[in-house]
Design a protein that fits this description.
single chain, alpha+beta, six-stranded antiparallel sheet
Length: about 150
Amino acid sequence: MPTDVGQLTERYDAVYREQMQDLPIVNRHLEVEAVGFTAFDEHELGVLITPWFMNLVLLPGTDDWRDSAQGSIIERSLPSGNCEFTVCRDDSLGTYLTAILFRSVTDFPDQTTARAIAEETLEVLLTEHAPESDDNRMSRRALFSRLWDT
């Protein structure tokens, strides 16, 4: 059964409460939030904000990745270019894909700013652009220079 956005946020809320809450890498000004999830190639694509990271997440609409190994890389084509996702497995969520946007969110001042960055990121990723390189891969540097130049 495919994971839904509500299950994703519930799971990461639980991880925050049970495992992460007192760690120094946590930004206490942020909370778990799913931003901009929308249909994308039979799946759902959006951004997951947590108090310790921000990731692009692709939730399965089919069993496409069920047999993929944990930690393996799956390249998906987005309108802005190709993006490498890591396969994640969770007992309660099943298999889903993530791509790191921010390994640390400690410098984010508040949830409003984090949400705005997540929304801008999705807008850039879901908009067609001229190729960044021969293989049309959107680099993190290109993504974030686009975000900050707008």
